[in-house]
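Checklist before submission:
- one chain only
- standard amino acids only
- sequence pasted in full

Submission:
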Amino acid sequence: MKKLLLLPIVLLGLISANAQTSLLPAEGNYSFDNGTATNAYWWYMNGSSYANFVWQTAEKHSGAAAYQLNVTTAATQQYHIQIVSSANSAATYPTVASGTSYTLQFWMKTSNGGGVVRVSNVGSAPYSADVTITQGDWKLYSFTFNGNGTTYRPSIDIGLATVGTYYIDDVALYTTAGMNVVDVNNKKQLSIYPNPAKEIINLDSASLSDAKTISVFDISGKNVMNTPVSKSINVSKLTKGTYILKTDSGSSTKFIKE
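Returned file contents:
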């Protein structure tokens, strides 16, 4: 019995000990909070004939502002629209070491857009795989790639984008192995049942205050599920194991999938 009790405690310690902040420099304005109406500190490498962008404060995932991309003409080739933060001489950009896996994440929202999105290093390698853009509320997009020893300044490359409005916020880069998505010892614990669970997890509505998105992570920090906030979520497709459930408002808890 003592051995059975020890495992969750060890896992909990590992998840908390792996805490990691984004490797991207604050001077790159990856939160978009430091822009102005005339300067978002981001620019196009391509796409000016297809889209325009706005730094705005009305619609954002967190903080003070977000980037608004307005696609006015549907792109006819992949990655006609590439956006990257302006180089800042005061910033120290990270080197993505060869043989190391990295994960870049950002939040995006569109009610009428579409296409695919990937990330690259100012339009060059390393490239991530494509992720399909989905319509709806804010969604966390996650991209994993292997480093190649270069200095890294992420570009968001949108492929075959359809006409629409896209909001982007909170860009962050982590080493995949060191990602910590949540400290499950925090004071904003989610109340869920049953736990362990086989199919459906129910969430106490009081725990969902101000939340828009629910994310599930495995114990290595890999994002395995994102869904709009609901009083219940279906985890039947997850493999057996220990997971972290977290809302974008900061509440979190651990659960076991049977």
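Reviewer check: The chain has a mean pLDDT of 81.
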